[in-house]
Design brief:
Belongs to the ABC-4 integral membrane protein family. It is a multi-pass membrane protein. This is ABC transporter permease. It is found in: Cell membrane. The chain crosses the membrane at residues 253-278, 298-322, 342-363. There is one protein chain. With 378 residues, the chain is α+β, with helices and mostly antiparallel strands. It folds into two domains: 2-52 and 245-375, no CATH class; 59-236, no CATH class. Helix content is 57%, strand content 20%. The chain is built from 13 helices and twelve strands. It has helices at 2-17, 19-54, 74-81, 114-120, 141-147, 191-198, 215-228, 238-280, 282-290, 295-333, 343-358, 360-367, 371-375, and strands at residues 61-65, 72-73, 89-102, 105-112, 125-128, 136-140, 154-160, 166-178, 186-190, 203-204, 206-211, 232-236. The strands form two sheets. Strands 1, 3, 4, 5, 6, 7, 8, 9, 11 and 12 form a ten-stranded mixed sheet that branches. Strand 3 and strand 4 (105-112) form a beta hairpin. Helix 1 crosses helix 10 (295-333), helix 2 crosses helix 11 and helix 8 (238-280) packs parallel to helix 12 (360-367).
Length: 378
């Protein structure tokens, strides 16, 4: 214990006597550890954050009837939906398409769950408001322009059921859909309202699903649905899933590259500082060796200083790294992140390891000092 206490006093005394240089080395390690901790947090949080962002671009998987079937019944839809983890489901919007007439003009109506549509397709711009309650509908911009209706106006829609009987119903325009796409040519109403004028079939034509999962996980879910439910054919929306995977891959590669560069710069800074310390202490090292100090004791002393700096910098890096990652997440994604306890040992181990590697060249230089030459002043 006495020997260990003496070793500790020697290390601390050396750090205190050269505190200006050691502060520089400590700051280098702390900054490196901060960026390392922050970027690792961001690296593993990017899929979650970006996944939520991509969910605002619409469905990434659709369910359609298999084979020669023309529609999906509710039981098949619910069976397929059970494959998705509940926490991963952002929204599932079923659609039934039928032709209705307004003032004897035919239009395509889409019966759906409007609350789910809002979750699956949050990018829709609605002039007015989302329908609430019965008999409220959304008109596509093209339909609204053609029949000259605005939010708050009413109209009568007529449909023909399977037996050829006509049914009419009055609706109120809650809002106008503006997407710049095919949605502007539809009338969107609740399934119950559409079934009221077309007949209750308890069937839908397609289900649009927004699932928080990467392409690999989504493909696995699709395979499970196809294997266990022969009535349903799942299809990935490639333009969404592939774009998501590409962006995530590039962002993670960028974070990885920046982390490696920062760690290399940290090693260079610490190595340079320790080399300057060795140069300053040449006479001290020469005197120790002349008095019988072994190379091993000198190596342990310098490594002790370096590892102390690495551990201290790692502790600071864990704290400031989380604050750094939190700031990036809030400013870029407008969402907070949770602290990952695993980052503490990872950051400490990497910081100590990087500092230890950075000390190898200076330590080797210290062991090469010849006492006779140094003490003669050469």
């Amino acid at each position: 214990m006495k020997k260990q206490s003496m070793y500790f006093k020697m290390v601390m005394s050396s750090l205190i006597r050269r505190r200006s240089r050691m502060v520089v080395a400590l700051l280098a390690v702390a900054i490196g550890a901060t960026i390392l901790s922050g970027l690792i947090t961001i690296y593993y949080d990017i899929p979650r954050q970006m996944g939520k962002e991509f969910r605002s671009y619409g469905a990434n998987l659709i369910l359609v009837p298999a084979g020669e079937q023309s529609s999906l019944n509710t039981a098949a839809m619910e069976k397929a939906a059970s494959v998705f983890p509940a926490d991963n489901i952002v929204g599932m919007a079923p659609y039934r398409y039928e032709t209705v007439k307004i003032n004897e003009q035919p239009f395509m109506a889409a019966g759906t769950d409007l609350a789910e549509v809002k979750k699956v397709s949050p990018y829709w711009y609605i002039a007015g408001q989302w329908p609430e309650g019965k008999d409220a509908v959304l008109l596509g911009q093209e339909v609204a322009d053609l029949i000259r209706l605005s939010p708050g106006d009413t109209f009568t829609a007529t449909g023909t059921d399977a037996q050829g009987e006509n049914f009419s119903h009055d609706f109120t325009v809650a809002g106008i859909v503006q997407t710049g796409g095919a949605e502007e040519a539809f009338i969107f109403m609740s399934l119950a309202d559409l079934e009221g004028i077309m007949g209750n079939r308890d069937e839908v034509d397609v289900v649009e699903c927004s699932i928080a999962a990467d392409e690999e996980a989504l493909s696995s879910m699709a395979e499970q649905i196809g294997a266990h439910d022969p009535e349903v054919t799942p299809r990935l929306v490639k333009r969404v899933t592939q774009s998501e995977q590409t962006v995530l891959g590039k962002l993670q590669a960028l974070v990885y590259l920046v982390t490696v560069v920062v760690l290399l710069l940290t090693m260079i800074c610490v190595s340079t500082t320790m080399m300057a310390v060795v140069t300053e202490r040449r006479k001290e090292i020469g005197l120790k060796k002349a008095l019988g100090a072994a190379n091993q004791s000198i190596v342990l002393e310098f490594l002790g200083e370096g590892l102390f700096l690495g551990g201290s910098g790692g502790v600071l890096g864990v704290l400031f790294g989380f604050l750094f990652a939190q700031s990036v997440s809030v400013n870029v994604f407008s969402r907070s992140i949770s602290f990952q306890p695993l980052l503490i040992p990872v950051t400490l181990v990497v910081s100590i390891g990087i500092t230890g590697l950075a000390c190898l060249i200076p330590v080797r230089s210290a062991t090469d000092i010849e006492p006779a030459i140094v003490l003669r002043g050469e």
